[in-house]
Amino acid sequence: MILLKKTLRDFKRNLFQFFSIFILIFISFYVYTGISSEYLGIEKEVNKFYEDTNFLDSLVYTNTPISETNFDKIKNLTEIKEASRRLYLKTTLENDINPDIDLYIIEENTISKMYLIEGIDYGNEIDGVYLDYRFALASNIKLGDIITFCYQEISLKKQVVALILSPEYVYRDNDSMTSNFALKGYAFISTNTFSKSNFFISPMIYNQLLIKTNTNNFKEVEKKVGIALDGKYTMFLERENLASYKTMSLEISQHKSLALMLPPIFLIISLLIVMTTMKRIINKEKVGIATLKAIGFRNKTLFIHYGIYGFLISAIAVVLSYILGPVTIPYLFYPSMSLFYTIPNWIPYRDNSFIFIALTIIILTIVTVLLSTRKIVMMPCVDGLKSFNSKKFSNKHLLSLNKVPFSIKWNLRDIRRNALKTIMSIFGSIGTTGILICALTFFTSMQAFKSLRYDKLYLYKTKISIIDNLNSKKIDNIISLTDGYAVIDKGVEVLSDTNKYVGNLRISDPNNPLLSYVDSNFQPVQVSNSGIAITYKLKSVLSVDIGDTITWHILGEEVFHQDKIVQILRDPTSQGIIMSKEYFQSLGYEPTPSYVVSSLYSDSFTEIDGVQSILKTSDDMKFFDDMLESFNILIYLLIIASIALSIIVLFNLGTLSYLEMFQDIATLKTIGFQSSFISNIILIQNLFLSTIGFILGIPVGLFIAEVSNSTMGEGFDMAIKLNFLDIVLAAGIFILVIVINNYSFYKKVKNLNMVEVQKME
After folding, report:
1. Kind of pairing, strands 115-119 and 484-495?
2. What are phi and psi for residue 476, nearest 5 degrees?
3. Are 353 and 36 contacting, i.e. CB atoms less than 8 angstroms apart?
4. Measuring CA to CA, which of 272, 274, 388, 575 is 20 to 30 A from 469?
């Protein structure tokens, strides 16, 4: 009962210190459980999605039909578990904007199966189309609607019999900055349905092969499949190199890195506060502990008593964060995530690691408390009953500093006497600065990302897609009527000694003012005529540099080229190869336009013969801003967390300083020092220690931002930027918090009852 009353009294006397510890432990585990449950939920749901749909292990592209003979050879390979064929056609849908539709004609629904949202299950005899659910939702298409596909000059009308999702489109790489689902979709129809259409040419032609393997040795699989196809294939991609799968995996890794990097900062600071708080409490209770031991309390009992302090604070904090984290933080991420990714369910998930981490935090807190109290709890009763003496401290080195102001001498003495408090102040400032700089860096980098794309590189207002294989006369007519410029863009596979990448091949035309280029330092540059350029992100993916030779080929073609890299260029959203029109023609290619860009926009552009669809830059920017708005929520949370952390750390340090120094403060006031002068002494110390932590925290923040940025999708290239104004803003926030805390310290000094203090031992 005595110890229970003492526990309640100690909590009441040190309410703010214990609350600070509670908040920091709560935040650390709250952030961990919140972000972890978010990425674990996504990982679990996407893996379930892949499993339920029997997601492919590899995908083979050909530009020649896959015959029955070749297909039988492939199915009989020992490395092949399952195989299926399909025909891929790039079509458009007849509506107001003529969106692109990836149309697949399938023999069977066994590999990368359709995931049914509503409608009827797949059947080869069913005469209808299975349509992308998100495209249908964005385009206001419902079950039973009749839609028309256009391929070159041919049309195909079919009824929508089901709305589905595909595991190959978890992430979809659209032409726009973000996934505007009304601009591009996909659809499936059966071979039997297709054979009755005016598209059909007998015998049935298949140009893609889906494979499930019995091995992870994909080099061997590719070799044997290549032999079975008589070498007539253009690309072999294992699952890990598919853009959708890879981008989703990298996104999960990015969130995992955030969950692992941020919480330890809060936890370590909270443990330092535990240590300083408990040391102060135990030093004040030295005589009381000795008295308890004298009347029969054993060391073990006292250790349990103080261990309960750490247990109660940490246990309540982790239980609350375990409950609240998964039901709050994930739903801040999901709106922006769903702009890019498509999975059947967005559900957070807790796993056993949460309990393990929770127990670890509780144990660390208890151990920190016990280590902080060990020295005095273990001392003999006789020593404990002696009056408390301050640390012995030599002032010889300070006495020699005759011209140094009193405030500096005082602070040097206090820093030496309270090394742990000094370390906590610096480390707390490092953690606070790191989080704040990370948030501001992300904000500045995203704005620079947007500016680079829309203000420096892509200067057009309208991107006009044209029908495949359109004759030059019609293309010239489109260019003339839209006051536009032709652009050549093609899919390309790039290979180095260590990796391969499927990206974009862009042909630079010096006469086109609407597409510009910058080098790796973001300076305007012309594309060289003497070789190829690659994007900066591709350089990292392939581990190559200027002067190295890479192998590449245009998707759909079997001719491979080997070229030396002569330039590195930056592009925020399109990674691959860039070469001049002159160099492209020297390789024997005809410069056939892929689309047209224009500085004008008109609704009448869609009526021009040969125009497939149009994309307004303004619409693209709107989607980007919507995505950025959701992303900014995370930035604001980081800023709020850093400010809260700085307030807690500095206020706690101010309170500790006051409680440790109040007798000295009373003495100073007695001999004539003003309250403002005394509080300024502490202000100088806080500014000095915080400045050290602030300077060291800047690279920490940049490191956190760089690590998070490195796990972004390979298609994105966001340069981490920290402006001088960001540093000024962070410093301003720091100084403001310090000044506010110092005012609180000043009020305590001003209201100090000196008579009562002098009566104390």
Report:
1. unpaired
2. -60, -35
3. yes
4. 575
CB proximity list for 578: less than 8 A, separation 6 or greater: 505, 506, 507, 508, 517, 527, 532, 533, 534, 535, 567, 569
158: its two tokens: 């079919």
Tell me how far apart the alpha carbons of residues 274 and 656 are, in angstroms, rounded to a whole number. 12
Q: Which residues contact 395 (CB under 8 A, 6 or more apart)?
A: 413
pTM of the model: 0.75
DSSP 8-state code for residue 304:
H
Contacts of 62 (CB under 8 A, 6+ apart): 207, 208, 209, 229, 232, 233, 234
What's the CA gap between 619 and 177, in Å, rounded? Answer: 10
CA 755, chain centre distance (Å)? 58
The position carrying tokens 């009526």 is: 607
Which H, E and C letters describe 571-619, residue by residue? Answer: CCCCCEEEEEHHHHHHCCCCCCCCEEEECCCCHHHHHCCCEEEEEEHHH
Closest by Cα among 585, 458, 598, 466 to 518: 458
What are the start-end ranges of the E strands in 73-153?
A: 80-93, 100-106, 115-119, 129-132, 146-151
CA geometry: angle 93, 99, 105, nearest 5 deg: 55
- Residue with token string 């297909």: 71
**Residue 246 near residue 254, CB atoms below 8 Å:** no
| Pick from 339, 186, 238, 254: nearest CA to 714 | 254
With H, G, I as helix, E, B as strand and everything else as coil, classify residue 642: helix
- State the DSSP string of 322-358: HHHHHHHTHHHHHHHHTTTB--S-------HHHHHHH
Per-residue model confidence as pLDDT tens digits over 233-254: 888 888 888 888 888 888 888 7
How far, in Å, CA of 404 to CA of 653, rounded? 25
Cα–Cα distance between 750 and 727 in angstroms, integer? 34
Nearest alpha carbon to residue 439 among 185, 692, 730:
730
Nearest-angstrom CA–CA distance, 431 and 296: 44
The pLDDT tens digits for 121-163 are 888 888 889 999 999 998 888 998 898 888 777 788 889 999 9
pLDDT digits (tens, 9 = 90+) for 446-456: 888 888 888 88
